[in-house]
Amino acid sequence: MSTSRTIRLIAPSGYCQHQSAAERALERLSGDHRVENTSVIQRRSQRFAGTDAERLKDINELVTLTELPDIVLAVRGGYGMSRLLPDIDYPGLHARLSQQPALLCGHSDFTALQLALLAKTGLVTFSGPMLAGNFGAETLSAFTDTHFWSLLSQPEYSLNWEDNHDLSGHWQGQLWGGNLAMICSLVGTPWLPKISQGILVIEDINESPFRVERMLLQLHHAGILAQQKAIITGSFTHGEPTAYDDGYQLDTVWEYLQQKTGVPFINNLDFGHNADTVTLPIGAQATLIAQQKQRQLQLTDYPYLQP
């Protein structure tokens, strides 16, 4: 990436226990970009990256900064965002970021903020790499790095991948979702966007197939899944079946929910907690095309870095 950008770090969730990874990320990013607000990396209060007030300030001060950064990057996920949702300055963020977009990027626990912003303001944010876990990996994934900068630098972007199953179809709608556990945590709250005829994308970590099914059934029973045109599944890392499952696995879950809801499940997108992950604009417009085992996701209507 030749153009130098300003990247502002925020730490609204868990304490960054992998300090060496964060330092490695700073070295990588600082070579081409200006990284600011780095003091949040070491900040700690119990398991959190600072007190609730400190972590809330990371978000709300975007309203009053003299100059907005190009990118707002979460240090890590974990837990903590749910505590902050009632006190976020949604009107202020909407007013400021609508005039001058700063691209907010993160995943996992960050999903709660992304969906809350979408519900309350309509702002599009980016589910993608974070400082420590991705940019601070011992070996930086060229796949993740390339997709991040390429999508953020273009007004339109297409992803191509291959699925295991033959399926043909064409669906258009608003792209939304992220971490499945965080989506479910927002059901019944004001911070879950009410999206009909959308394309829901999901991923998670440390969740066994039966837990994934239980969460999807919650969304089904809440009437959410039936309102979607399609569901895209990303990576479900470290949730392998056990001998007790006796052949019950994620494919079983996808087939069961597809039969239950009538909504097609499009699988195997590299998205989530794996080293290789695409970046997705949450709230953008999407066209999903399936042709036998080939899949394409065309993305439009999201903020991007100006040349």
CATH topology of the largest domain: Rossmann fold
Count every beta strand, where a strand is a DSSP E run of 2 or more residues.
13
Query: How would you sum up the global shape?
Result: globular
Proportion of residues in helical segments: 25-40%
* Cα-atom radius of gyration: 19 Å
Percentage beta strand: 15-25%
**Strand-pairing-aware structural class:** alpha/beta
Low-confidence stretches: none
CATH superfamily of the largest domain: Murein tetrapeptidase LD-carboxypeptidase, N-terminal domain
Family: Belongs to the peptidase S66 family.
Domain LD-carboxypeptidase C-terminal: 172-288
Protein name: Muramoyltetrapeptide carboxypeptidase
Active site: 108 (nucleophile), 203 (charge relay system), 273 (charge relay system)
Notes on the protein architecture:
This protein is α/β, with parallel strands linked by helices and 307 residues long. It has two domains: 147 residues, Rossmann fold (3-Layer(aba) Sandwich); 144 residues, Glucose Oxidase, domain 1, CATH 3.50.30.60. Helices cover 30% and strands 24% of the residues. The chain contains ten helices and 13 strands. The protein has a seven-stranded mixed β-sheet with strand order 6-13-12-7-8-9-10. A six-stranded mixed β-sheet has the order 2-1-3-4-5-11, sandwiched between helices. Helix 1 links the parallel strand 1 and strand 2. Helix 9 packs parallel to helix 10. It is globular and about 50 Å long. It starts with 5 loop residues before the first strand and ends in a 7-residue tail after the last strand. This is Muramoyltetrapeptide carboxypeptidase. InterPro entries: Carboxypeptidase_A_C_sf, Class_I_gatase-like, LdcA_N, Peptidase_S66_N, Peptidase_S66C, S66_fam. One of its GO terms (biological process) is proteolysis. One of its GO terms (molecular function) is serine-type peptidase activity. Belongs to the peptidase S66 family.
